Amino acid sequence: xxxxxxxxxxNPEEHYCIEPLERVNLAEILTLxxxxxYFVLHAPRQTGKTSILLSLQDLLNAAGEYRCLYVNFExxxxxDTARAMKALLGQLASRALYVLRDDFxxxxxxxxxxxxxPDGALGETxxxxxxxxxxxxxxxxxxxxxxxxxxxxxxxRQLRSNYDRRPRQFPQSVVLCGVRDVRDYRIFSSREGTHVxxxxxxxxxxxxxxxxxxxxxDVRALLAQHTAERETAFxxxxxxxxxxxxxxxxxxxxxxxxxxxxxxKTGRDRSGPIRSDAIDEARETLILRRVTHLDQLADKLREDxxxxxxxxMLAGSGDWDFSVRDLEYVRDLGLVAREGAVRIANPIYAxxxxxxxxxxxxxxxxxxxxxxxxxxxxGSLDLSGLLSAIQxxxxxxxxxxxxxxxxxxxxxxxxxxxYLQRVVNCGGRIAREDAVGRGRADLLVxxxxxxxxxxxxxxxxVIECKVRTGKSGLDRLIREGREQTASYMDRCGAESGHLVIxxxxxxxxxxxxxxxxDPESGxxxxxxxxx
Length: 531
Hints:
alpha/beta
């Protein structure tokens, strides 16, 4: 019986999967190889790149026109080029023995290292191997961007310097696979004391292919495999829920489905049909467990070029200073949507990012805030009481935390969300809508009310955040904010709306900054909170 895969390449005999080569333009790839092109395949981590390369290797070797070899360069990472090249040639020799039953590289690598040194051994090995091969070689290099510094420069230059000798004395085609396009590599050479652009070190690249996420059809087909084999039904709306939460990110799709369909502790099937609330439980489990995929993503938030894009996005700010290269980088990481508005790629990432940025703050709140204080006797959430408490916390502690976040507009909203998260985690969730240039940040609090005489139900509350600067008048901000909040409430079916205005003008007293305005009689159903 197969299962949903979240570790390593897919194996169709063991895993539910979308056929890897159906996810790319195979005709284009085969044409590039036939034309002796060297090219790049790139995509965020855990999207299926390795599975595609291994399937391509099998396809080409079965066809018989080429001898194709997949090789992973990850273990050759490090600044020591001599050590890295020895490891790299070891990988090449091992895989050639296993896949092609060819011991040529194994027999010649030591001599090439001795005679050519680390900056020529790979090139000379490939020259000799290609010359002795009865068919043109095709080399698929995975994890190319795990190499760093002079090692990466050396590999790229050795491939480039022998390019003119293909296909009789060098590989017919080489595919470089990694997270980013090689043209975007900015590599520091300790030998040369300067940065080298990947595009100049590998200026023989014909094109770059970007692997996309699953389509809605792919998600549906993946779940259908589980239904067919396990005879476990997915209730109406489950596929749409998975799609809404993941936007097709392959690892997330498999992780959510796997967590919902199988007991995470025992690995056995859960009984009964899979419901949408099981998907929501799975989402929260993955986030709280800090699974490797999400942890690696969160680790990138420490990088300045990532924060330059993310922070104004969290604030909905039009005041941003990131470059096109910064934006390309976070898009290559898969953290930001590939096209359209600059926004976080999917709702799960949108939950992970602010939680990670406020992790230390939330640890402090665990000891200071008891969620039970804000749950009414009937099990409903006392959101007005919670926001009033946040005003008090903001007055005492927010300025120091805002300074730590390093972004004037995003900082207050991160403090607000950290406090909300502490309470809402105990019976609900917070969804965000993030995009650069919106002029606001929207939060949707979904609270599962359990208690009282009524059956359990989910109640929705909208919180919209705006920033007041020296240019903005309060009455106008409130008028526009109430209209936007009411529109958002109508769109998502919320029963209450709250507009939070952060006063970022310098030298303002807290008595002036903190206020509350109740909903207008016969008008907007939105409460306004000043902070």
